[in-house]
Amino acid sequence: MNKIVNNRAWYLVLPVLVCVAFSAFMPLMTVVNYSVQDIIGPQQRVFVGLEWFQNVLRDENLHGALYRQLLFSAQVLAIQIPLGIAVALVMPKDGWTASLTLVILAIPLLIPWNVVGTIWQIFGRSDIGLLGNLLNRIGIDYNYTADSLDAWLTVLVMDVWHWTPLVALLCYAGLRAIPDAYYQAARIDGASRWAVFRYIQLPKMRGVLMIAVLLRFMDSFMIYTEPFVLTGGGPGNATTFLSQYLTQKAVGQFDLGPAAAFSIVYFLIILLFCFVLYNFMLNVGTDRSATRAEAAG
């Protein structure tokens, strides 16, 4: 007896496909179109091929912005992932204290990005800001508007304050999903706290940690609003990241062709690094599982 297959249910997905095509595919194709043309005027365009891509790859300012972006993303991951895990480990497991902790921890995530930049802009001022005034009172010459290192550290601390709660919440969800049987077996075997973390909690959090690393890398690599409001990319170019440099080209200088080529290169860089990070974390988890299986066998 032949089973009748009705594929009309796929029509329900059609509105989603239309929305995705309108919001993602069409703008991307527009950027690709601009990246190979010189926009002289509203109706004047000249095909230039790969010229804008060659100019972008030779741009020394772009190289500097890329270096700062990679350094910032590496520092963000190196600080926020271990810190988020540590916070999740000390959070209460149940009761009203757990609910209160979750609410307090989520507060920075609810603040709009431009407001975060404004908060830290005032907080770090040496005349009226609590942080800046306090540091200057204890003898530390702190001025994020004039010193490039102070500006960099302020942006970094601001991002850690803003996004570490996300990592902590993801890790907390991963920890709460571990069955109690694992902890009971560890207590029977007399496992230490470090052994429980290394062999039970950390492997079980591998999935959420992968999500946390990818989310934080993508978001830190595309950071724009907070440093733009806080430092404006300065002093000099000390906190000018790729997104700000792209905005300067597209909006400030109105170089649509180079900006479009830069956007595509930017997009490909993010895809490449996300692909490398994902496969690295996946392979690390697979290798550890295979090692444990061989040891058990």
Would you write up a description of this structure?
With 297 residues, the protein is mainly α. The protein has one domain: MetI-like fold. It has 13 helices and two strands. It has helices at residues 14-35, 51-57, 60-90, 96-110, 113-123, 130-137, 148-176, 180-189, 193-204, 206-221, 225-230, 242-252, 256-296; strands at 37-41, 44-47. Strands 1-2 form a two-stranded antiparallel sheet. A hairpin with a 2-residue loop joins β1 (37-41) and β2 (44-47). α2 crosses α13 and α3 runs antiparallel to α10. The two termini are 47 Å apart.
DSSP helix fraction: over 70%
Question: How confident is the prediction overall: mean pLDDT?
Answer: 84
CATH architecture name = Orthogonal Bundle
As laid out across the biggest beta sheet, the strand order is 1-2
Total tally of structural domains: 1
CATH class: Mainly Alpha
Distance between the termini: 47 Å
Q: What is the structural class?
A: mainly alpha
Count all strands and give the number: 2
Largest sheet features: 2 strands, antiparallel
> What's the helix-strand series?
HEEHHHHHHHHHHHH
Supply the CATH superfamily name.
MetI-like
- Low-pLDDT stretches are none
Task: Label the overall shape.
Answer: globular
If helices are DSSP runs of H or I spanning 4 or more residues, what is the number of helices?
13
**CATH fold-level assignment:** MetI-like fold
Rg, Cα atoms, Å: 24 Å
Strand content: under 5%
